[in-house]
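Technical note accompanying the year-one report. For the benefit of new consortium partners, we illustrate the data format agreed upon in the data management plan: each record pairs a sequence with a structure-token string. No post-processing was applied to the example shown here.
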Amino acid sequence: MNPTKFISVLSIVIILFTACSKDDYKLDSKSTDPFVRFNFLVSSSNVPLEYPAKSTSLLPVSTYENKSVKTLKVPVTLTSTTLKSPVKVNFSALTSGDANSFSVEPTSELLFEGNKLTDTIFLSFEKRWADKQSINLKLENSSDPEIHIGNLNSYALNDTFTINLGDISTTYTFPVNQFIIKGEVGEKIDFKVNFPNGFIPEEIENASIFKFLNGFDYSLTHDDFGDNRNSVTYHLTLLEDIQNDDVRYQTNITLINIPNYIATGNIVLQIVKPIKSSRDIQANPASKFYDLSNQYYLTYGENWFDKSGTCAWQAYNAFTFPVVVTKDNENAILYNDKGTTNLNDDVYHDAFKIGFNVVSGTSTTNSFNLKRWFTNESTASASSPGFNITSALEFFPENGNSKTNGSVLVIPQSIAITATGTGKTAHIIQISGEGTYKEISAGLFEISFELKLENEELFGGTVTSQYRMYNNKTYPKLDPLNESCPKEVTL
């Protein structure tokens, strides 16, 4: 093998595995042969990587199928040392279909200067394309003749990039499923509707995307759509005082399907003013069920469920976390002052609530062993957010101040579970339940409760299951129950 050629190829490989720039990705190099090429990276699930995400293992692709109406960012990288003078690179953009279905910014010229070795082509879509078509981008020439167009090889030049416009899939969802309010007139909450694949403003500006089940009076407005096609922010303002502490007030806002847009994931948003009870935050029962010093902390449970035709206790575990609140929340207890006198960086937790979530990523934990309740379920948080119940259980200490026992409530809410596969409609399940908790030995707490799941299509109404949950993986063996149990449901 020619040693010189080997070193040259190795340099190219090293160049491909480097850091990111402000816009997308740049590849630093000390190569004496500068070159410019498209640097479009996609994840294993075919999602484009955008700043600040980075990868040291992915290689640029030359084609991409786009099913989104969000702005598509196509990075172009100049591999060179720091530039002593600006470099302009011209490109062309041709399409096999309707040229009016998209716009390109900049229109034909990229600029590189100093340490800015990546520039980005932005493709925006102001209307839906009627038929499948392709957009072909091509790097044409450079203002510096020493800069080579494309990689320094013959098998992956990356001097052209093709976007194939496929079938458009536009959906929307709520990123959260519940807000707790104080019930004061004039109180405001802001919530978002997320559009994972973007939206066309003229398609939704006059559309009725909600249906309402109102438990109190309020007004609802939204921000201008602007250039952000990822979400729309809505503002709810309470128009009446709802201060009866013995009454639970609740309004449901539900996303509905409209032409071209499918409601998926969390489609029901609950705004709740719960029943108020007198509790001493120093009892802090929630703290018995999480440990933030261990990011993989689990609680352990069992529920009475069908196992191959026989009712039995089924074991499970789930990542458990506190519910973070602001310091003005009536149940807020200081968790961490960050070692400073600055009150603005203090972290507060709800002394009486816990929830379940993943440590990181887009998967799901097994809240209430719900994954055993279904067959063929999607475990991605985007389609089945109901597996991550971030505010799940609420504790009510005996006499309001007991540190060892009391009652527990499964916080009533709507959760969404979806079958695997694309284009599936989420099943909206109402959950509720109640029980007790107590310290059964030194430091070991047991929660005993009944969970109710309601969905007419899946269960024919309401089904229930008995649960035991512990803050340690070592707990007493459970005796069988003399009662029926639910069975798995195929989605």
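Partners are asked to follow this layout when depositing records. The chain has three helices and 30 strands.
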